[in-house]
Amino acid sequence: MLSYTITKKCPHSRARAGVFNTRHGTVNTPVFMPVGTLGTVKALSPEDLMTCGAQILLGNTYHLYLRPGCEVIDRFSGLHRFMGWERPILTDSGGFQIFSLAKLTAVDDAGATFQSHIDGSRHLLSPERSADIQACLDSDIMMCLDQCIPYPADKTAASDALDRTIQWANRCRNHWLNRHGGKNNLFGIVQGGMYPDLRRRSVEELLQVDFPGYAVGGLSVGEPKDLMFEMADVSLQALPEQKPRYVMGVGTPGDIVELVALGADMFDCVLPTRNARNGQFFTRTGTLNICNAKYRLDRHPLDEQCNCYTCRNFSRAYLRHLYMAKELLAYRLNTLHNVYYYLDLARQIREAILEERFSEFRTGFYRQYGQRKAP
Amino acid sequence: MLSYTITKKCPHSRARAGVFNTRHGTVNTPVFMPVGTLGTVKALSPEDLMTCGAQILLGNTYHLYLRPGCEVIDRFSGLHRFMGWERPILTDSGGFQIFSLAKLTAVDDAGATFQSHIDGSRHLLSPERSADIQACLDSDIMMCLDQCIPYPADKTAASDALDRTIQWANRCRNHWLNRHGGKNNLFGIVQGGMYPDLRRRSVEELLQVDFPGYAVGGLSVGEPKDLMFEMADVSLQALPEQKPRYVMGVGTPGDIVELVALGADMFDCVLPTRNARNGQFFTRTGTLNICNAKYRLDRHPLDEQCNCYTCRNFSRAYLRHLYMAKELLAYRLNTLHNVYYYLDLARQIREAILEERFSEFRTGFYRQYGQRKAP
Lengths: 375, 375
Hints:
homodimer; alpha/beta; TIM Barrel; 17 strands; 44% helix
């Protein structure tokens, strides 16, 4: 069972630095988890990720279930050996992709019936099946199947989805204990749409089920940024201090800084990897689009102060050339930088908390990054 | 000026092991040069290439002239700093791509007028212009512009193209000496189609011009394998022993073993990189197509004896999964293996020559690789 220790609390916000252990090693929080959808963080090797300092990856249960499938991964006794990653892995439940990517055909108490986005084949994902697949992946942190709703959603729909999510959380937990002996760790997910009272109820009922850690789901689904922060705030405040708190699928560098201030410990987001493939870089002074003609003859690195392989070895002109020519190396070098940026941001945040200067860090971050003030 | 030293000659064939120096370091021959068309060996970083043991890369003048263009590369004082590669570079003349890839509009004594395959813009590549571009790239070995002909070609066409190639070789050399002070090294190219007497005449006339090294061009253009070996044999035999001999654009692993036996020292070919992107691997027991369903659950590395990053860390099942899912990492891992294979083959050939066991190596190579006997 995962034990989470708070190493240091920020005196001016709810930010905290902590640490937890898994069978595959220790994770220092706040932590960013690069997204490795199909058993690879797109364009990066495990060695690249180690070099960037990744502590823990996220794998997508929906994608891995469809390709390569459990039969293949079972031959390797889990995802770690299959993909050559020896550090911790967290897997989602598959729920979010079923509601966003697959063609959903029915949701009832039994689970969600969907058609694969690849070949149209039909599948049922139940809370028990999601736990089985994640047990096969042998992830260090598994997530309960939750029912995701679109934004906007009326209160009845949000409340119904919340009820079902709690019911499924109970079933996931029982199945995980009875069928899988409680191996690794299972986290519960807070839902409740954009309704503060539902968010609070969601936390209360999840705490009754009892998990070693909790995630805040259903954010960054199209709502205004202020509403996202409000829902995160309500959810995070209600969660117990002694357990790790994971905000799913959020967000920009600024979002992460703010969510840490609200008490979040763990993050994942496709922005660094996806935007890299679209030629957008994150730097400490904001984003930079490498397509811009002004970089054609630019001999400087992306970010003079960055220590990633890309910044230590290549110029903006070269990166622009590779990207404009659609060279495969562009995707790797771009992704390396952005993933390094996000991981380094989390490291800097953690260091600032440990050294009791998180408030100064936060102010300095916005001054440099040039985004709107903290909410 | 490049000085080539023969370290060891095989007593049973014309194979030899040698060494030459350039401003960017030493090259041990026989050597395979990975193809870095657009300032990158597709999918690999300079660090990857160092790890594979690449001694020298090939850059394509035609491609680099069009993208990013000389103005950009000039800012970096050449291709080495632009792409972050500190070891030697050889560039071709651009001739082959003009005759194969661009829309050729006219060839006369002045040069070749062509339309870019990217945007249709018109350009004239003359012998002098080719030398200028290569001087801007600052390649350690530059090639003279030659006129390439299709296969089959009648003798008059082959003879005319040969005459023009010699005339251009003279102009290239004069321009290189007068305009560029003879910096780096300029190689001449043997042409003559599939006519042994023209091949011999081509060598004789090139020797009158005098170059620090010679290449055999116009091979692997669709002719039967036996004819390719016959033309290579005639050309290589006629070339002086004291100068390095480069067979352009050839070939399979078996071709390289045979051409070494015929006295060739340098090779380049897109097979390892291009086939990697098509899921075909070179292994010591022959080629392997990773799409094959039989690898779906295969936990073995591609090649148990291979020391590349891919073989040391990943299974066939994982490589198949990445490739079938079109994951970007597939292209890098596949290319890493194939480039390592070719570089390692050249290293093994060299070692065998140095240890006076090249004949045994050659026999053993075919026994394992399972291809037809040597010609």
